[in-house]
Design goal:
Order of helices and strands: EEEHEEEEHE
Number of strands: 8
CATH topology: Barwin-like endoglucanases
Helix content: 10-25%
Structural class: mainly beta
Number of domains: 1
Strand order of the largest sheet: 2-6-3-5-4-7-1-8
Radius of gyration: 14 Å
Amino acid sequence: MQIEVVKSKIHRVKVTGADLNYIGSITIDEDLMDAANIIRGEKVQIVNNNNGERLETYAIPGPRKSGEITLNGAAARKVAAGDILILITYARMDIEEAKKFNPSLVFPNEENNLLN
């Protein structure tokens, strides 16, 4: 049997932009993606702490050391600049593997989304 567990989490990042006219996705500073072990095109669950919205999209890398967190396409309607998000990815694995697995948890600076 396989179960789905948290693979990575970027905890409490601030939305820097919302681009309704872009073709879907979330743009994430590539340094944050690397730290959280998130790859280009990976499905990401987004939890908006400001309004309770939960949605899924896919990750695309943004410029390194930019702190960029931009929701693109229809997802842009679910956030506002300055909202605080939690970004989560999941992985399927056998139960015994899951018991030993340690997710990548990232806690960036909440003011600028950069790694400390």
